[in-house]
Amino acid sequence: MKIGILISGRGSNMVAIVEAVQSGQLPNSEVVVVISDKKSAEGLEKAKARGVETVVVARKQRSREEHDAEIIAELKRRGTELVCLAGYMRLLSGDFVAAFPNKIVNIHPSLLPAFPGLEAQRQAFDYGVKISGCTVHFVDEDLDHGAIILQKAVEVADTDTAETLSAKILEHEHALYIEALRIIVRKNYKIVGRKVFYD
Ligand code: GRF
Fold it and tell me: Are 121 and 162 contacting, i.e. CB atoms less than 8 angstroms apart?
């Protein structure tokens, strides 16, 4: 399966995916491109260092649709079959979602539907939850909303800060993303409404 990864920043989930592909932990797959909307994204150098092609598609005051059209073209040109959002900080247009139906996945650092949006770990921490975690889900036009593939719970300790909680969740994100991608690459799952079933 040809995978395209979209990033905006650090790229640690992107690195986890690339390394899982390159080590054979995620078989029958290839990362064909890493695309960033920010040319300053730290992840770009990390992708290059691992031999993955990178492309920057900056927003440049264009509409969401125009910007997305260029990203879609870059993905399609390389035969991308699965799009992984990995810290990509923009909401996708309806055109983007329609160009890859049920073939876009995202990771979010909370147990959705709790705490969608920015700084989910801080939102959860400030709310005082005892358990948070991370979610891998299919992407639709609404923010952090599509059908859930996998979730992992992480306990909040009394001694945690928003930062230590984020770090604990991040460790689990990497493994959870790979586990979800293994399910998708194996192709033995089905989506029924909001529910995703697999063996
Ligand atoms: C992660 O916490 C991810 O869940 C969220 O954005 C962050 C990206 O981190 N969507 P990284 O760029 O993968 O290191």
Answer: yes
Q: What is the Cβ-side half-sphere exposure of residue 46, based on CA atoms within 13 angstroms?
A: 20
Tell me if domain 1-101 and domain 109-135+149-199 are identical in fold: yes
Q: Which residue blocks in 30-153 are alpha helix, DSSP H?
A: 43-49, 64-77, 94-99, 120-127
Instruction: Share the mean pLDDT of the chain.
Output: 98
Domain spanning 109-135+149-199: CATH superfamily: Formyl transferase, N-terminal domain (3.40.50.170)
How far, in Å, from the CA of 142 to the mean position of ligand 1?
18
**Strands of the 2-7 sheet, one edge to the other:** 54-56, 30-36, 2-7, 82-85, 104-108, 131-138, 148-155, 195-198, 189-192
The answer, yes or no, to whether any atom of ligand 1 lies below 6 A from the CB of 10, is yes
| pLDDT band at 126; cut points 50, 70, 90 | very high
Q: Which amino acid is at 191?
A: I
Q: Residue 7: which of 83, 77, 95, 121 has the closest Cα? A: 83
Domains of the chain, by residue range, sit at: 1-101, 109-135+149-199
CATH number of 1-101: 3.40.50.170
pTM, to two decimals: 0.97
The residue behind tokens 């995620």 is 26
- State the closest ligand 1 atom to the C-alpha of 12, by its place in the atom list counted from 1: 14
Our answer to whether residue 137 is catalytic in this structure is no
